[in-house]
Write a structure and sequence with these properties.
2,3-Dihydroxybiphenyl 1,2-Dioxygenase, domain 1, elongated, alpha/beta, 23 strands, 14 helices, Rossmann fold, 8-stranded mixed β-sheet
């Protein structure tokens, strides 16, 4: 094993324990961005496997190693496998940690206390002891330990066992500098105040809305990278940092959950212009056709309402970027594929959702030319982040930040012959509709589940379409088995549109030569006339 220089990303592996979420995941992404191979470990394999796949897809190098740091034999075995992977370990991010809700002398739960001490102290010792021989053989290395401000100052909210374990970790780090500096090994204890991670949510009575005012995991990762690249003759024993103190009486109210409702829906179709014609015959006003980038190879029409809208999306050129969409169409046909959720800031939304234990993909920012009704051209700009697949029960869901809302919500597009005024609901079909409703509900700040219409209704926010979850039997009874069979099972089965005048809506649809079917409080149109979705019209 060689002598490593951290100025060279190829110098050696960065091993991150507790890499499945929060600080650990941020550390992995940041070091990988700088070209370092990253070894990810956590007790649960799925999150680190997904993170490794994300890093590798972005051109980095990552491997996942399922590991319980309390299993000493497994720790030593894993260290050897990590070292064999790239020829050594240059940086250890000793990050695995635990806390629990019972934190004070008057509510002792000894099993929980034992688990905190074991993970935060014994686990850390196991990791250090296993890594030391590797770093000695390499001629040096850096150990960075995720301690806490509670490891420097008593913090009642952090809890007795957590504070004690982090105090011990700070001392362990100091002992490494005293004993291993001669071997070129440096050790730093990072002692942050409140960091916006899922661990913070275990604090009794904590308001998740405060997350946006905390230290972010990315801040800790940036600091760790700086420590790793410090002059090897300098040991930074510890770094204490905390969120800026703010006026508790500030007027702005922190946002506990970033997703405010349903922004828009999109229907994926193989015949964009044919689909547009059908929706015009349903009495809707459509925007001029908009074309996305050559890389995307897609185009769209929008149907705009006051608070939300609906999008027809079609393939106009085969590209690598739309391969998945083409495969869906080939496999299942046209259908209502996605819900785009309403957010203010995509980057902040991703951070807050991560702190709430909800996965979201990296933010993508893009713009596209927008043809205007007067013949001119504008530019619509967006930032989007997708919910992780494991957090969505069915269909495709993402979040959309509008940077140029005035370019989308144009007044001349909001008047429709069928008197439509907005989205009134989305219907998802599930073998377990109650469970599916619960999973949808956690994706929205206003998410609440109530029984309704033979299924379970998810509130999504003010001026926002709810999601109705039905069993296949209830859905077939609501419309017909044939209509349900004409919708892709992997998509949303139906959408509801609120109209000001139900009679005018029925007349507009009839004028387009399209058959209607009665429904309590409205009527519906079959998927053959809508490009794969059951369309309900309801009075509102």
């Amino acid at each position: 094993m060689g002598n490593y220089s951290l100025d060279n990303p190829a110098a050696g592996t960065v091993w991150i324990t507790g890499a499945g979420s929060g600080i650990g995941a941020a550390l992995a992404r940041r070091f990988a961005q700088e070209g370092f191979p990253v070894a990810l470990s956590a007790r649960t394999e799925a999150p680190i496997a997904a993170l490794a796949a994300e890093i590798n897809a972005a051109g980095g190098q990552a491997r996942a190693f399922a590991l319980d740091v309390l299993d000493r034999a497994a720790v030593f075995d894993t260290v050897r496998r990590i070292a064999d992977w790239q020829g050594g370990i240059a940086v250890l991010c000793n990050n695995a940690g635990l806390n629990n809700p019972h934190r004070h002398w008057d509510d002792i739960e000894f099993a929980e206390w034992d688990a905190v001490i074991a993970t935060n102290l014994s686990g850390a010792i196991n990791v250090i002891a296993a890594t030391l021989p590797i770093m000695r053989a390499c001629g040096g290395g850096v150990m960075i330990h995720t301690a806490s401000l509670a490891g420097r100052h008593h913090m009642p909210a952090a809890g007795v066992p957590y504070g004690a374990s982090k105090h011990a970790l700070v001392d362990l780090s100091a002992s490494l500098n005293a004993a291993e500096g001669k071997n070129g090994i440096r050790s730093t204890a990072l002692c942050p105040g409140e960091v916006a991670t899922p661990l913070l949510l275990k604090r009794p009575g904590f308001d998740p809305g405060l997350m946006q005012w905390m230290i972010q995991p990315e801040d800790v990762a940036e600091l760790a990278l700086t420590v790793a690249r410090m002059n090897p003759a300098v040991a930074i024993h510890e770094i204490v940092f905390a969120p800026l103190q703010r006026d508790s009486k500030r007027k702005e109210s922190p946002m506990s959950h970033p997703v405010k409702g349903v922004d828009h829906l999109f229907l994926l179709t193989a015949d964009l212009d044919g689909s547009a014609d059908r929706w015009r015959r349903l009495g809707f006003t459509l925007s001029p056709r908009g074309t996305h980038s050559p890389e995307k190879g897609t185009a769209n029409y929008t149907i705009i309402f006051e608070h939300d809208y609906f999008e027809l999306l079609g393939i106009i050129a085969d590209t690598q970027a739309n391969l998945h969409q083409r495969e869906m169409i080939a496999r299942d046909g046209d259908g209502l594929r996605a819900i785009a959720c309403r957010i203010d800031d995509a980057h902040m939304a991703r951070r807050l959702l991560a702190a709430l234990g909800i996965g979201a993909e990296p933010v993508a920012e893009f713009s596209r030319p927008l043809p205007l009704p007067d013949g001119g051209t504008g530019t619509a700009a967006f930032a989007v982040t997708h919910f992780a697949g494991q957090d969505t029960p069915a269909g495709f869901m993402f979040m959309c930040q509008h940077k140029t809302p005035d370019m989308v919500w144009r007044p001349e597009l909001q008047t429709h012959a069928n008197t439509a005024r907005g989205l009134a609901g989305i219907v998802a079909v599930s073998d377990d509709p109650e469970q599916a409703a619960g999973r949808y509900a956690r994706l929205f700040a206003a998410g609440q589940v109530t029984p309704a219409d033979g299924g379970w209704l998810v509130a999504t926010g003010a001026d926002s379409a709810p999601i109705l979850c039905l069993s296949p039997a209830a859905a077939a009874a609501r419309w017909s088995a044939a209509a349900l069979a004409a919708t892709p099972r992997s998509a949303f089965a139906a959408m509801r549109v609120a109209v000001r005048d139900l009679s005018a809506a029925r007349a507009a649809v009839a004028a387009g030569g399209i058959a209607t079917h009665d429904l309590p409080g409205g009527f519906w149109v079959a998927p053959a006339d809508t490009s794969g979705v059951i369309l309900e019209f309801v009075a509102s």
